[in-house]
Amino acid sequence: MNAPPLKTVDAFHRGRFHLVQPKGRGHRAGMDAMLLASMVDGTGPLKVADLGAGAGAAGLAVAARLADVTVSLFEISPEMADYARQTLALAENAGLAARVCVHEADVTLKGAHRNAAGLTDDTFDHVIMNPPFNAAADRRTPDALKGVAHAMAEGLFENWIRTAGAILKPGGQMSLIARPESIGAIIAACGNRFGGLELTPVHAREGEDAFRILASAVKGSRARLALRAPLVMHGPDGHAFLPRVDDLNNGRASYPRSTAARPANL
């Protein structure tokens, strides 16, 4: 008899929610997911879709910080979707579970198939995504579960951002985290679907090249692209997060759009 896959239960936001994750294989959530979650901001009831949700880290981080938000997790991998279900079943997440649901779905579906999978048109106030960003030329991992989470397919941003544009309400916000080399593909995919694209370079330390970008845009907006001030994670010495980043990582603060370009309903 095969042994069940090893897993861990990990605390986030200083214990405000917990995540069931595969141990020694697959994708394990960390800072990327927490930064992505921080981009959701607003008051009152909001519907959030987390595309490529994995075990649910970013979506649960949103739900833990914003009490009136409901979150739909969309994940193509049956195994990772099951980890998300296990996550919601944890006693530690009892206060959040009623506001979060899991959909085992391919976020690149189109038309009626997309709607049938729960990715319904004009439904969500905010869509977040942390898509696979390893190029095909990158070293392939022998870990099939990790490969699903990390390997970038041809036309990925076009397909994922097309879905975001379909399922968002007019004026809704899309937010994502990616590598800086994906900026061109993100801009092209936004096309006429989204405007007011805001890009924030993320740096480990001052003087170092950016290793991530945060991007947000508004459905139907005609506002111009804006390049925001860099977000620097660490000081010159040590590996501790700077106070602002530590607040984002632990759900004590949000990273909203700049005031001038922020949609009125978010």
UniProtKB/TrEMBL annotation:
- Entries under Pfam families matching the protein: MTS (PF05175)
Quote the InterPro entries the UniProt record gives. Answer: DNA_methylase_N6_adenine_CS (IPR002052), SAM-dependent_MTases_sf (IPR029063), Small_mtfrase_dom (IPR007848), tRNA_Adenine-N(6)_MTase (IPR050210)
Keyword annotations of the record: Methyltransferase, S-adenosyl-L-methionine, Transferase
Q: Domain Methyltransferase small: where?
A: 35-179
Give the SUPFAM superfamilies listed for this entry: S-adenosyl-L-methionine-dependent methyltransferases
Provide the protein name. tRNA1(Val) A37 N6-methylase TrmN6
The organism encoding this protein is Martelella mangrovi
